[in-house]
Amino acid sequence: MSFVTAWLLAYNCFAWNLDDPRFADAETRRALAMTFNRAAVIDKVYHGQARPVTGPFTPDQWANDPQVEPIAFDPTKATALLRDAGWRDSNDDGVLDRCGVPFAFDLLIPVSDTARDQAQILQDALRGIGIRMEIVTLDGAAFYDRVLKRNFQAAFFAWFNEPDPDPYVLLHSSQVPPAGFNVGNSGTLAPMRS
After folding, report:
1. Partners of residue 97 on adjacent β-strands
2. At residue 34, does pLDDT exceed 50?
3. Which of 24, 56, 59, 160 has its Cβ near the most Cβ atoms within 10 Å?
């Protein structure tokens, strides 16, 4: 008997709602991505059977750019980026704030063991750098209802590509719900794994 590894044309990602001022700054979003330990997720959640991705295409698809490197797990650099973006713990409560607004947010996830496990890995890492993230688990209908109405701060997704991928409905500015699935409103789906 032999085993073959077959990769799906799928990936998971976090969507940040850019209408929330916590996520409006690109360097803040980069810092958030730097706190997500993809290697731990691949090892602990997927038992080595996943790969990091760098965009909305999996490594096997023609549209993938192999020269784009995955964002490295680097909480120290993430902390520096947040500081440069104006995030400080000004009241010594253990949570960063900027202009009096604490860096605390809810992450919506659908009911799924892998979504929960990945969200907890991110939650632990964010707590370590002074960000409070609460995980809100919703059934599929409630999850998509809130996300498509853009009634969320952050959300965790799984997305399946077609063999000939076209990210237009995910990323084009004309595709903000209800027209499409650009739920972050600027093409900022931050890919995490395939």
Report:
1. 88, 102
2. yes
3. 56
